[in-house]
Specification:
heterodimer; A: 12 helices; B: alpha/beta; 11 helices; 10 strands; binds adenosine-5'-triphosphate; binds magnesium ion
């Protein structure tokens, strides 16, 4: 059960979107998010929907997974809808004591909901189709110009990928330790809050010790292999643009131009 | 008084892309007082299976009866089950957390609701069984050596005085002396107190030396079930699933080729000795 969360969001599949260079996906996501905020009329809405739909279809990830991310913001969505509907001035549809629901409010609520949903789904596509390591690699490459400003891009991305790498390990370890203490009849489910926190000590102590031990081992292993930071370091799997990545960029740029045209014309 | 497993299936990560069937249609009867060796290649589902026996994992499908009672029926107390079926995990020394060894061993009995005095008594008894000296009782677990820590962790389960003791590779990473000590103590417990023992191990020698019955698993199913002599006789099949027979069994099969009439169905050095001496005695008569 715990391993489910661990691999985070990534959904393994063999699709063109999965194989795209992470930098292309990063840029596409940023462009898409910007475009979502530019939507003002039906045409824009249709274009964004078509783009999103095409990506979902190409990614071969079941729509069910895409929508999972929405669960988290469900409450926020409901609030935005209600607040927008009730407190936007304009032509009144009906009135219930002090609550006035207006046409403008309904439209604004619809727009905001749509934007939020597209935003979440749009970025979910990226995390579902890119492994965390690939993502940090992409970020490192994309941020590498900042190195000139002495910004520790490599160190940052190394830290990030090690952290990401350790999440599943630590979750698995937690699972193991919890089970081992449960085998000694430890109880994690009942009792009041203070009691429960106290009951977690038999899990937390071994977990911290093992995390520190692992960090130590990892540092040694890295030193033993002459790790000394980013300078001059090559990659085993360097990010190299393929033909499909160039096509990907072309599509993203075409999409961007479409929006510029749309904004200038209307 | 026994454990009965009926058509047990278990699937990890049921509703995700990573679903993995770890156990397939397992049916087993484990009687009181048996000493069972559970063998199988890595990933064959041994650890998954034993975690079912004390209710840490709930079967996807199938039933488990402990002393005739269905452990999945409503209102069945898992705490009670776990106090009867003690499980020692792989590398249990990493689960020590208390400030002293004695306190850590008291954790299990304490969770059973026993009073402090009884806990102490049981903890001291368990520590003496695994051979940890009185002077080490108040040390921090982290001051002990790896092997001693392993013993302390095993004592933590023994102190609950289970009727069934399950150990997942208790000797992994120990030196020969530590390995024999621990196994001897377990065998002693088995013969003195009559507890049921299930020993998961990758060492065919250890299994042959100690257990009365071997269950061999292959890719989530029970592949063989019988006495060590019966199971290791089929060493060719065992090799196909990544296992083997003890060295001495191979040796005796080779010997049989040069000395016709030599018994080869042996699994331990002691049996081999008897077989060889028996052959020469038979020879004198010949
Ligand atoms: N928490 C988990 N989530 C998903 N799959 C798992 C999990 N634990 C084990 N598995 C898988 O279930 C199968 C059986 O694993 P199990 O740990 O029971 O094997 P094992 O026989 O104990 O192996 P070993 O000898 O290496 O300890 C393996 O294929 C493993 O990859
Ligand atoms: Mg195992």
């Amino acid at each position: 059960m715990i391993r489910d969360i661990t691999i985070g969001q990534y959904y393994p599949a063999n699709s063109i979107i999965h194989r795209l260079d992470p930098r292309v996906k990063l840029m596409a996501t940023v462009v898409f998010i910007v475009s979502v905020f530019l939507i003002h009329d039906l045409v824009g809405f249709l274009i964004a929907t078509a783009a999103l739909g095409a990506c979902i279809w190409l990614s071969k990830v079941p729509v069910r997974y895409m929508l999972k991310g929405l669960k988290v913001i469900f409450i926020i969505l409901i609030f935005t809808v209600l607040l927008n509907m009730m407190f936007t001035p304009g032509r009144e549809i009906f009135r219930f004591y002090f609550i006035r629901v207006t046409w403008e409010g309904v439209i604004l609520a619809g727009k905001t909901t749509m934007r939020l949903v597209y935003l979440i789904v749009g970025s979910t596509i990226m995390t579902l189709t890119t492994t965390p390591n690939h993502l940090t690699d992409g970020l490192e490459k994309a941020l590498s110009p900042l190195k000139k400003l002495r910004f520790p891009v490599h160190e940052l991305s190394m830290t990030m990928s090690i952290a990401l790498r350790f999440i599943p390990i630590l979750l698995e370890e937690t699972d193991k330790i919890m089970k081992a203490q449960q085998a000694r009849c430890a109880d994690f489910e009942s009792g009041n809050l203070i009691h429960r926190v106290k009951n977690l000590i038999p899990v937390l102590v071994p977990l911290f010790i093992s995390a520190i031990r692992r960090a130590n081992d990892l540092a040694m292993a890295m030193e033993a292999r002459c790790y000394h930071g980013g300078a001059g370091r090559t990659k085993m799997k360097p990010l190299i643009y393929n033909r499909r990545d160039k096509i990907g960029y072309a599509v993203v740029i075409a999409y961007l131009i479409l929006w510029i045209v749309l904004i200038c014309v209307f | 008084m026994s454990i009965r497993i009926e058509h047990l299936n278990y699937i990890y990560s049921m509703d995700s892309a990573f679903r993995k069937q770890a156990l397939r249609d397992i049916c087993l009867d484990i009687d009181d007082g048996e000493f069972i060796g559970l063998i199988g290649h890595t990933g064959s589902g041994k650890s998954t299976l034993i975690q079912h026996l004390n209710g840490l994992i709930r079967a996807t499908d199938g039933k488990i009866y402990y002393n005739g009672e269905d452990i999945y029926q409503e209102g069945y107390s898992m705490t009670k089950l776990r106090s009867h079926v003690g499980l020692v995990f792989q590398y249990p020394e990493y689960q020590l957390f208390e400030t002293t060894v004695l306190k850590d061993v008291c954790f299990g009995p304490g969770n059973l609701g026993l009073d402090a005095e009884t806990c102490m008594e049981r903890a001291k008894k368990a520590l003496s069984i695994v051979g940890i000296k009185e002077k080490d009782h108040n040390k921090s677990p982290f001051e002990l050596s790896g092997g001693q820590r392993r013993r302390a962790a095993i004592a933590g389960v023994l102190a609950m005085e289970p009727d069934v003791l399950i150990l997942d590779e208790p000797t992994a990473g120990l030196d020969p002396r530590g390995r024999n000590d621990i196994l001897d103590q377990i065998a002693d417990l088995h013969s003195r107190m009559g507890i049921t023992v299930i020993l998961v191990s990758h060492s065919m020698e250890d299994v042959a030396n100690y257990v009365d019955r071997i269950i061999a698993m292959n890719r989530g199913s029970v592949y063989m079930d019988g006495t060590p002599a019966e199971v290791f006789e089929r060493y060719a099949e065992l090799e196909k699933i990544g296992l083997a027979a003890p060295q001495v069994t191979y040796f005796m099969h080779d010997l049989q080729r040069s000395f016709p009439g030599m018994r080869a169905d042996v699994t331990t050095v002691r049996e081999a000795k008897d077989a060889i001496l028996g052959w020469f005695e038979g020879g004198e008569k010949r």
